Amino acid sequence: MSTPPPGPPGVGQQFRGLLRPGSAPPRRWLFALRAGVCMAVPILVGWLLGHPEAGMVAATGGFTALYGGGRPYLSRARELALIALGFATATTVGLAVYPLGSVAVTITLALIAMIATWLGNAFQIGPPGPYMFLLATAAASSGLNQAGDPLTAGLLVLAGGGFAWLLSLIGAVATPRGPERTVVLAAGDAVAAHAQALGTDQQSSARHAAARALHRAWTVLVNQQPSRVRSTETLASLRAVNRRLHALFADAVHAGARGDPAPESLLEEVRTLQALARGKGKVPADALPPGMAPGVVPLGHPGPLAALTDALAPGASIRTAVLRVGVAAAVVGVIGTQFHLERSYWAVAAAVLILHQGFDWKRTAVRAVERITGTWIGLLLAAGILLLHPEGVMLALVVLVLQFTIEMLVLRTYSLAVVFITSAALVLASGGHRVPDVGAFVLARGIDTAVGCTVALLVCLTIRPRSAPALPSLMVRLLRRLDTLAPHVATGDVTSERARAVRRDLQHGTFVLDDTYHVAVSASAAQRRLAEHSWPVIAATQQLAYRTLALCWFLEHEAPEQVPARCLELFGTHGEAEFRAALAVLTEAIIEGRSPAPLGPLPPVLERELANLHDCLTPADG
Fold it and tell me: Per the confidence metrics, is the pTM higher than 0.85?
């Protein structure tokens, strides 16, 4: 418990891994092919209608197909509609500000970069994140001749996005619950991995990964489902399977707390549940625990307002990323104006691409090297394509092949994917026209990328995360949420709407605390030392939170008439009061930065976790 997890790999280790293949989701080729088709078809349609320039503009909307993966189809439909509208708006705004001059363009790009980073990360839209919206705005603000007036260009992009929307939802015809099945299967794998990791150095990280996977599954099965649509038999079965996975996870957590291995039957039951999730059989009604009423489901995650607020909370990595991209976009805009960079929007886009994910310095440096080297190599491929000047069907085919290759490589070997990203971007930027001076055109892109990456690195060094000081406040927030949950868990009232909301917030708090810790160990040397010094207390706080959540999962599977007796057995006569008194002592010690006062009587079921946290807060010298 007191040994911190390994810190992030050093810069040297990360550079050595630049070309090391990573992993990609199953059936990635299908996603890659869809992305390529969504880019190529608008180009082909524009050529067939005699307006190739319009087709190139509409292809920007094809980037809509890069988002929404993993979401249920109805939720995906809503998200992709908003994303397509976002691309159209970004293009319209970019063209509208172009005549206003470089100052207006610089301010607009900085604002769009900050807003897109905030919204994209807060709502977890996934890769490629806010980068593509900024690129659409920046490309339009460069005054591309083929774009036409702002409104027309926006409508063309929206049309391209509409086609991508349709193609991204076609899977619903064959497998309407495919995303839900996939996420439940992944949760089962994570629960099994945690059970197998008990008693090893990987126990803590595997437990956290399982909690995240189960949380993600509930998000897909609950939060991303339309509230006004009746639950189908398939959805109800998947929810039942996932609830049982929670119970098995709770069993493993309890076993780990006692220092025991997972029950022998656990892995076998996980595989059985996964077979049910694949549709091989149905969950028998009499096999479900008595407390599993179909209408009672956990809440997945806080609502949109809470997500936006948390993203800008002190210590949040998203807050740092938003500030960084805004500053970098403004600085690059000024440099482009002062030095008359022909296409400075490439520099802005490069800077935002490096910074929008909120990486630490080491990963930012590696990403910048990947981007610069990949770009300069990609310029050679782009130059060859532009010299050949493909048109019509050949141009659409080239874009399709490039986009397909990008999506197949980007999760495996990003540095190699950048080569094709650069080529695709320059082909699209040419607008389908013959480039008079290919050498100058590609050289300008290389210079702009180098400038953008350099500014990004300087901004990353200058604006460092201030996460370590926030760790105590996050631990206090977690303990206060435990105090709010105490009356519910001590009395067995764990399925009411209020109890489920508190449980959701408590689990979300453990994720935030863990993420903040990893940001802190990647910050300055002083912050890393402080974070690692705090690790025993962080780990003990997380263990107490997970143990309490596991009790909730356990109690909701008990028959209602047995819950009072079970709570009395677990907590004793005065368990709630003892639990809350101990939490008050521990909370006060963290707030005041001192050793805690002695603990009084403790509820039997949480005695070990509370005593462990007390010991971690007490210096070795007493």
Answer: no
Structure tokens at 371: 């981007």
CA-closest candidate to residue 424, choices 444, 406, 443, 447? 406
pLDDT band at 488 (very low <50, low <70, confident <90, very high): very high
Cα–Cα–Cα angle for 368, 374, 380, rounded to 5 degrees? 145
Cα dihedral across residues 280, 282, 288, 293: positive or negative: positive
Query: Does the pLDDT value for residue 11 go beyond 70?
Result: no
From residue 485, alpha-carbon distances to 180, 472, 591, 593, 617 in Å are 29, 20, 20, 24, 22
Residue 6 one-letter amino acid: P
pLDDT single digits (tens) 396-415? 999 999 999 999 988 888 78
- Cα(31)–Cα(431) distance, integer angstroms: 25
Residues in the chain: 622
Q: What is the pLDDT of residue 511?
A: 76
Distance (Å, whole) CA 175 – CA 72: 11
Buried b (16+ CB within 10 A) or exposed e, 507-535: bbbbebbbbbbebbbbbeeebbebbbebb
Question: Which residues, 6+ apart, have CB-to-CB distance to 327 below 8 Å?
Answer: 110, 459, 462, 463
Other CB atoms within a 10 A radius of the CB of residue 440 amount to 10
Interval 209-259: pLDDT, tens: 887 788 788 788 877 887 555 557 788 788 888 878 877 887 787 777 677
First to last CA, the chain: 19
Helices (H), 356-470: 361-388, 392-409, 414-429, 438-462
Q: Alpha-carbon Rg of the chain, whole angstroms?
A: 27
Query: What H or E segment, with its residue span, contains residue 91?
Result: helix 73-97
For residues 201-215, one letter each, b for 16 or more C-beta atoms within 10 angstroms of the residue's C-beta and e for the rest, the string is: eebbbbbbbbbbbbb
SS3 601: coil
Q: Residue 397 has which token pair?
A: 């085919």
Cβ atoms of 83 and 68 closer than 8 Å: yes
Name the nearest CA neighbour of 549 among 585, 500, 515, 516. Answer: 500
Instruction: In whole angstroms, give the CA distance from residue 513 to residue 536.
Output: 13
Q: 226 preceded by cis ω (within 30°)?
A: no
DSSP string covering 268-284, please?
HHHHHHHHHHTTSS---
What is the sign of the dihedral through the CA atoms of 193, 196, 198 and 199?
A: negative
Q: Whose CA is closest to 132, among 113, 155, 149, 114? A: 113
Taking residues 136-161, report their average pLDDT: 75
Calpha distance 77→82 (Å, rounded): 9
Query: Where is average pLDDT lowest: 375-389, 431-445, 575-589?
Result: 431-445
Quick one: which of 555, 558, 587 has its CA closest to 484?
587
Q: What is the 3-state secondary structure (H, E, C) of 208-270?
A: HHHHHHHHHHHHHHHHCCCCCCCCCHHHHHHHHHHHHHHHHHHHHHHHHHHCCCCCHHHHHHH
